[in-house]
Amino acid sequence: MKTFINLYPAILFVFFSLNLSGQIGVRAGINLSNLSRDPVDDDFNLGTKLGFELAFL
Predict the structure, then answer these.
(1) Contacts of residue 10, Cβ cutoff 8 Å, sequence gap at least 6
(2) What span, in angstroms and rounded, lies between the C-alpha atoms of 42 and 47?
(3) Structure confidence at residue 35 as a pLDDT band (50, 70, 90)
(4) Is the pTM of this model over 0.85?
């Protein structure tokens, strides 16, 4: 059992390193926020704000 506990991190490292794959592409998404803060007045707004996300992989 002690040997398994010592080898467990090595097993996880090998598993995750072999599972990595190089992908090329674009990821897009939408963010809906219900709480926003005005940095000048330090007020909180409860209105919905819409935001976009674009990421290159």
Answers:
(1) none
(2) 15
(3) confident
(4) no
